[in-house]
Design a protein that fits this description.
Layout lengths: L1 E8 L10 E7 L6 H15 L5 E6 L2 E7 L5 H13 L4 H11 L2 H13 L3 E3 L3 E4 L6 E4 L17 E5 L4 H14 L4 E5 L2 E4 L2 E5 L5 H8 L6 E5 L2 H7 L6 E6 L15 H13 L1 E7 L11 E4 L7 E4 L2 E4 L2 E5 L12 H16 L4 H9 L11 E5 L2 E5 L5 H13 L5 E5 L7 H13 L4 E4 L13 H12 L7 E3 L3 H11 L5 E5 L4 H10 L3 E2 L1
Parallel strand pairs: 8-12, 8-13, 9-12, 13-14, 14-15, 20-24, 21-22, 21-24, 22-23
Antiparallel strand pairs: 1-2, 2-4, 3-4, 5-6, 6-7, 9-10, 10-11, 16-17, 17-18, 19-20, 19-25
Helix pairs in contact: 1-2, 2-3, 5-9, 5-10, 9-10, 11-12, 12-13
């Protein structure tokens, strides 16, 4: 076996409901995989009698997991690697495991369990309770006694899926704020508390969750939870009140031994496994089937659906989809689904209908920058979105058709870690919209091992094969350059579609210079 990666998982994950050490391995050509895994298991059990082990096989390799307490999992990584390599001093490793035990931490864990409050642990800090009812301590200075009467929990919602996570999380947070909550929100754009930005960047993993859940101002948390964080570190929490599962499709396959959509759905389902209630898209059979689920669907039977053009809860019509700005009069079906899911999650959290209604009716591009973000730029319109996978791109192109543009101009950049066929599929989808011009660029910072220019060249070639004349395809050095070129080429009534939109500050400054306005 060849070691590919070794890391700690601090909470519920794809293979186990608690912390441990995991290693991904690749089997050598001709190697007996079953025998190799059996040797690993025997080696671990010889060092740790009764160890709880998990094996997840994937194409060409396996994920090997050892369950353990948070204070020992760093040493368990060493144990795992030694067992995989067939080396290591067993006595020394046993001694290291014993030395890693932190009695004060284990006493605090026992106290938290006894008082029914969550405990969040990282390398530097430990907290008991959540949000405004949390107490935070340095890990190297844990208290002998805790005032457990001061600790408690707050409502927590986790949002996951392939597409729609950020929009759904933002909308749910907006609704909760209108209900009077001080909301802690973590998304791919950053962490906000009470609507104010606390930290900018991609905050969708357990570190972001802990940042929100330890903030003493927060009395309700909405946490976008991406597959990367689940696979790399596990969940930050062992339970939540509501999990919202938007959808699953073939994005990010080939990483951490996730080779197909069914396995990716299992990653998303980890979020549902810790939830008291699961709000799930009824059109996603791989995500459903929970005992405690609430369903939503744009076009099929569900607890929350569209009836006669209105968002309806179990048949009761609540608000017309045309009154929800992010749906663009109902043309953006994917945002109708996001609105249904967020409303259902808010209802599951016990939020009354009035703030749900006001949240839906008042949520537009200003509240959802970079996602379905429509601007008027001179005589043309510009639509910015994060869409970066086949399903997201198709949804955007459907919206573009629904907006009734005279011509469509596309600014397109794609991450380099997508399979060639996925990139070609996106190019073919773009070609079906018969764009008047296509501006292609590299995504700076997202080459992911490819040479500069490789992705634009592949996409351009597929566009040509799909019937787009070479003269209509332009290579741009950046998203900003592509947007500038597209705006300069646009005529009255045209729509410029930009995806995935990442250069927000630069593009926003350009739009300000052009006197653009949202809507």
């Amino acid at each position: 076996m060849k070691l590919l990666d070794s890391r700690r998982l601090f909470g519920p994950n794809l293979v186990y409901p608690g912390p441990g050490a995991i290693s991904e391995v690749e089997f050598e050509p001709g190697e007996d995989a079953d025998a190799a895994v059996a040797r690993w298991q025997a080696s671990i059990l010889a060092m740790i009698a009764g160890a709880s082990l998990r094996v997840r096989r994937f194409r060409g390799g396996a994920a090997l997991f050892i369950a353990g307490e948070p204070d020992q999992i760093l040493v368990l990584c060493d144990v795992n690697e030694a067992a995989i390599a067939g080396t290591g001093d067993r006595d020394a490793l046993r001694a290291a495991l014993d030395a890693a035990v932190e009695p004060a931490l284990r006493a605090l864990q026992a106290g938290a369990r006894a008082h029914g409050v969550p405990i969040l642990i990282d390398d530097a800090q430990v907290s008991v309770g959540l949000g405004r009812r949390a107490q935070l301590f340095r890990r190297d200075a844990l208290p002998m006694h805790v005032d457990w009467e001061r600790t408690g929990t707050i409502p927590v919602a986790l949002v996951t899926g392939t597409n729609g996570k950020t929009t759904s999380a933002r909308l749910l947070a907006r609704i909760a704020a209108l209900a009077g909550h001080t909301v802690g929100l973590a998304t791919t754009d950053g962490v906000e508390v009470g609507g104010a930005l606390v930290a900018a960047g991609d905050y969708t993993g357990p570190d972001a969750a802990r940042l929100v859940l330890r903030d003493p101002r927060v009395d309700l948390a909405v946490l976008e939870t991406a597959r990367g964080g689940i696979l790399r570190r596990g969940l930050a929490v062992e339970r939540c009140d509501v999990a919202l599962l938007t959808n699953v499709s073939d994005d990010h396959l080939g990483h951490y031994g996730i080779d197909d959509v069914a396995t990716m759905a299992r990653v998303k389902r980890v979020v549902g496994s810790v939830a008291d209630q699961v709000v799930v898209n009824a059109g996603e059979p791989l995500l459903g089937g929970w005992d405690r689920e609430v369903t939503f669907s744009v076009g099929g039977p569900a607890d929350w659906t569209v009836v006669d053009g209105a968002i309806a809860r179990r048949g009761e019509k609540l608000i017309a989809t045309t009154e929800v700005p992010i749906t663009f009069g109902g043309a953006a079906r994917y945002n109708v689904a996001n609105a249904l899911g967020a409303a259902a999650a808010a209802d599951a959290l016990g939020i009354p209908w009035d703030p749900i209604h006001r949240g839906l009716a008042g949520f537009g591009s200003d509240e959802n920058p970079g996602r379905g973000d429509l601007w008027q730029v001179g005589p043309a319109r510009l639509l910015l979105d994060f869409g970066h996978n086949p399903e997201g791109v198709r949804a955007l192109l459907e919206l573009a058709r629904g907006l009734g543009a005279a011509r469509l101009l596309v600014v397109l950049g794609l991450p380099g870690d997508r399979d060639d066929e996925v990139l070609r599929a996106i190019a073919r989808d773009v070609a079906t919209a018969r764009p008047a011009r296509v501006f292609i660029h590299d995504l700076e910072g997202y080459l992911r091992g490819r040479e500069p220019g490789a992705v634009p060249a592949l996409v351009a070639a597929e566009l040509e094969r799909s019937g787009i004349d070479r003269s209509l395809i332009e290579r741009s050095p950046s998203e900003l350059s592509g947007v500038t070129g597209a705006i300069g080429s646009a005529r009255a009534g045209d729509l410029v579609l930009v995806f995935p939109h990442l250069e927000r500050a630069a593009v926003t400054e350009l739009l300000a210079q052009r006197g653009a306005r949202r809507g």
